[in-house]
Amino acid sequence: MKNKINIIKNVINVFQNRNDDMKKTIIGLSVFMVLSVILAACSTTAPAASSATVESKPGAVSASDSANVEMKGFAFSPKELTVKVGTKVTWTNMDSAGHDVKATDGSWGSGTLTNGQTFSMVFDKEGTYAYVCTFHPGMTGTIIVTK
Ligand SMILES: [Cu+2]
Questions:
Q1: Residue 69's beta-bridge partner residues?
Q2: Ligand 1 mean position to 128 CA, how many Å?
């Protein structure tokens, strides 16, 4: 009988200890949450700096690293375009007829573009990239990518 009472006392002690541990955990979590809110408030005070960091990443395309080619009158304009590595080139079909952009070596291409549709490609490597419209074989162009 005494043993049973001792066991019950022990169980009660365990629960009381757990409650103490829970209190510590809750206090710890509260401190953590308050610190998190403070840190979050600090980090949102400089949004301009963080977006500038994204744009300065190597290989990232910024507004100055883009160029356009029009598909107009069954011709690419400009027919030959020189850009720096990392430039995003966008083709826009200005004709009512469908056109496409296809590398002459077949390694990249757009699929059919109807009037007003665009196709963009980032040129990450130096080189001369010849392409053609597969619907109109006389419609050719070249992108020259330099350092
Ligand atoms: Cu075409």
A1: 91
A2: 21
Q: What spacing in Å lies between the alpha carbon of 86 and ligand 1's midpoint? A: 26
Reported pTM: 0.58
What's the 101 CA to ligand 1 centre distance in angstroms? 8
CB contact set of 121 (below 8 Å; sequence gap of 6+): 88, 89, 101, 108
Residue 40: pLDDT above 90? no
Band (pLDDT 50/70/90 cuts) for residue 35 is very low
3-state secondary structure 56-121: CCCCCCCHHHEEEEEECCCCEECCEEEEECCEEEEEEECCCCCECCEECCCCCECCCECCCCEEEE
Whole-angstrom Cα distance, residue 69 to residue 96? 16
Rounded distance from Cα 100 to ligand 1 centre (Å): 6
Residues near 83 by Cβ (< 8 Å), separated by ≥ 6? Answer: 67, 89, 123, 143, 144, 145, 146
Summarize pLDDT for 45-63 with one digit per residue, the tens: 333 333 333 333 344 444 4
